[in-house]
Amino acid sequence: MTGEASPAGPLAGLRVLDLSRVLAGPWCTQILGDLGAEVIKVEQPGQGDDTRRWGPPFLDDGSNDAAYYLCANRNKRSVAIDLADPQGAALIRRFAETADIVVENFRVGGLAKYGLDYASVKAIRPDVIYCSITGFGQTGPMRNTGGYDFLIQGMSGLMSVTGLPDGEPGGGPMKVGLPVCDLQTGLYATVSILAALNHRNRTGEGQHIDLALLDTQVSLLANQASNWMNGGMVPRRLGNQHPNTVPYQDFACADGNILVAIGNDRQFRQFMAMIGLGALADDPRFAASGGRSVNRDALLGVMRPVIAQWKAAELIAAMQAAGLPGGKVNEIPEVLEHPQIEARGLVHEMERSDGTPVKVLGFPAKLSATPATYRTAPPRSGEDTRAVLTGVLGLDAAEIERLMAAGVIAERL
């Protein structure tokens, strides 16, 4: 890696060329950056990543960057280069020649005309690890169709098992409150890139990673898909109930709702004794997990009125004292101020180059020898253009000024 000195971290010494925008790709490259890789984020002059405008809320620092953008773009340097200009495409190809990893989420074949598709980049960097993220993948009848998280949540079957049952007030399919398809695809992209890196370390061979949002979410249907494939049970919406384990849901107490997550027969016996229904644990219908699932309506019909007599805090405290899993539904401000989250150091305060403070949620894994680092706050669009072109590609001041004047590159929006 040329240019700036390598940061500490398990991926130090690796350079990532980030040609992605919105969330799945940037989520992946942020993780790589957290683990020490140098990430060069290429953005369109005058526009930048789409999520910079996905607000409110926006930062009041002159950039007007949305809070959404801040969640996925720390530990990166931003260069603004016009990909559609032949001179701009040539600059990006020069970056690609120095890059260990390229991440992009253009339409299938969209980068070929710029000489930035996998075949073209491999020709100038044979051992490159090139990750393409699309809605439906590089093959198949829908390969040319654009994919968005909401669409994928529906098409993948996720929404068919999310929400209240039909016939209940508010029943019907419901999306998850986070863009989980994008986020999980970003995670799978990171895992795949790390696997490809290990392969390259052993063989010297790079490779192309073809990753689709739809494939990712279908693979994550997990137990719900297995229930159908191996048991013939069509998954359905159960609200907050679990398809296989009972009781595993929310219950109404006298002063609010609580969560009960009973995962085995021993816990069930303890919980039922605690709430004064110990005899039900010996009922043949409920003694084993499979029976409780089949007879859930009968069991819940007895449990609900008893739990409704408890105060929420008292029942949660009793469960915690007994080592049983239970709690409340926290709102976002509550969980971010929770003592456990504070103790784990999940919230980090950073400063942008102009001193503007921003808060980010950190990398969750605690690596004992090579922990994640938080080196640079999410950059303004193009704020590193001059420094990166000079430090990485060796352009002199006159050439940079010429490209600026021609509109090929830019500094900040």
Automatic annotation (TrEMBL):
GO terms for molecular function: CoA-transferase activity. Keywords: Plasmid, Transferase. InterPro entries: CoA-transferase_III_domain (IPR050483), CoA-Trfase_fam_III (IPR003673), CoA-Trfase_III_dom3_sf (IPR044855), CoA-Trfase_III_dom_1_sf (IPR023606). The keyword Transferase applies. Transmembrane segments: none annotated. Gene3D superfamilies: Crotonobetainyl-coa:carnitine coa-transferase, domain 1 (3.40.50.10540), formyl-coa transferase, domain 3 (3.30.1540.10). PANTHER family: SUCCINATE--HYDROXYMETHYLGLUTARATE COA-TRANSFERASE. This is L-carnitine dehydratase/bile acid-inducible protein F.
